[in-house]
């Protein structure tokens, strides 16, 4: 991977959690539950298009990178940097990992 592709991949991974942390809550505050749907459509849709459609995230070989990993790592790092407690976040992190694993397992049975 060239240095340019590394920078583009890092930028693509940074944009998603940055937009989530900056915009999602404000959209929910302004529009209520509909703001969450707007955020899901516009933030996730726009960053997915940038990362996968335009090609900011460069994937080589068998490595598979999902935007959810970028969101999780970026939002967790931002929260810890802002002074949040990592130990208080552990139940949520563990629950998300278990839920994702169960969801993938159930999906594998269906497909």
Report a brief summary of the structure:
With 111 residues, this protein is mainly alpha-helical.
What can you see in these coordinates?
The protein is built from four helices and no strands. Helix 1 (3-31) runs antiparallel to helix 2 and helix 1 packs across helix 3 (67-81). The chain is globular, with a radius of gyration of 16 Å. It has 111 residues and is mostly helical. It has one domain (3-84). The chain has helices at 3-31, 33-54, 67-81, 86-110. The longest helix is centred in the first third of the chain and has 29 residues, at 3-31. Keywords: Membrane, Transmembrane, Transmembrane helix. The chain crosses the membrane at residues 6-24, 31-50, 62-81, 93-110.
Can you lay out the helices and strands and say which pair or pack?
Layout: H1 3-31, H2 33-54, H3 67-81, H4 86-110
Helix pairs in contact: 1-2, 1-3
Largest beta-sheet details: none
Topology, number of strands: 0
Q: What's the domain count?
A: 1
State mean pLDDT (0 to 100 scale): 86
In the predicted model, the low-confidence regions spanning at least 5 consecutive residues are none
- Tally of helical runs: 4
Structural class computed from helices and strand pairing: mainly alpha
Label the overall shape.
globular
DSSP helix fraction: over 70%
């Amino acid at each position: 991977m060239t240095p340019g592709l590394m920078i583009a991949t890092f930028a693509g991974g940074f944009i998603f959690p940055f937009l989530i942390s900056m915009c999602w809550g404000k959209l929910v505050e302004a529009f209520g539950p509909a703001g969450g749907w707007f955020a899901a459509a516009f933030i996730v849709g726009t960053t997915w298009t940038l990362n996968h459609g335009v090609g900011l995230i460069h994937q080589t070989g068998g490595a598979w990178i999902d935007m959810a990993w970028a969101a999780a790592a970026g939002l967790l790092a931002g929260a810890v940097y802002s002074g949040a407690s990592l130990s208080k976040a552990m139940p949520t992190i563990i629950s998300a990992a278990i839920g994702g694993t169960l969801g993938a397992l159930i999906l594998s049975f269906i497909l």
